[in-house]
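haha ok so turns out i had the wrong file open the whole time. this is the CORRECT one, sorry everyone. sequence first:
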Amino acid sequence: MISVYDSIDKCCGCGACAQICAHKAITMMDDEYGFRYPVIEQSLCVDCELCQKVCNYQPVDKKSPIVTFVAQRKSKEIFKSASGGVFAELATKVIEQGGVVYGCIFVRQNGVLRPIIAEATTIADVEPMLGSKYVQSDTYDSYKKVKNRLKKGQMVLYSGVPCQVAGLKGFLRKDYDNLLTLDIICHGTPNERFFQSYISDLESKIRGTITKFNFRGKIKGWGDFAYTYTYTDIKGNEYNAWGCLEDSVYYKMFLASSIYRESCYHCPFASIHRSSDITIGDCWGIDVEHPEYDTKQGGVFDFKKGISCVLVNTEQGSNFIETNDSGLVLSRISLDSVVRYNHQLSRPSYDSPYRKEYY
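then structure:
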């Protein structure tokens, strides 16, 4: 009898196994807490073991980043991004070159707000992908779509958390010159059922339906955690609203590492050895490490707008940055100074003793 994973801490829920199964024997199903795992219908299984072969939830090659940058997008559109706007700029370049971008968006499905990996073929399609999504997204059939695009010769930028990028590479089982992968410095992911419970509670308080949600709006500036959202009332009128970290129980539990997936606390990708071509995240500590970079000190970066760190992990990633950096302000920075303020580059998040109680 085939089994895809040995224990729940060794499954990230990327869905590569379900997407590769030609007999549709594997379904991603929720456990009692809402975390999604592959379930095999044995009557449909032909014991081909392909699901096990594509599973890529394992440590990557021990390669360190080629170069590390501090970065900021030049465009005024930077305020739509959570940090320095690097993903937005690179995605724009890919679209302008006729490529396709994949990233997480929130969509309203069956009465609830869902995080899914969607496809963007226009710059307008990219906008919903901007901003942080502190919840695990559903990869759906995105791996299949990526493979079809690549086989047609189209350029593809695939973005996600590290395990989702690893899942894509396991699914593809070969390298493609026209594929660029980008992962984020991820601290862990709650599941969408928990997120939807939070949204439902918020909707009951505002007496409206939330259509857009942004965990990291810059209404108070970069680094001050404020969430923004758009909702409609019973008459169909639309409003924009925001709240602070202190207002959100979900937010506080997320930052306390209390509601992540089991595998997040054992993440094999929580190191400087990444599975993607490019890694991005907030460049926390830049004001301490390099205060001279700030425009207030005569530097070229406006810290108030948000600053990103960029780890270039492969030659493919390096070549793309070199030929598409016109919309970015870039400066080299030591990898150590980035790791100091991003623990996920050295270890997974610590489990919380209250996690099961919260769920």
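The mean pLDDT is 96.
again sry for the mixup
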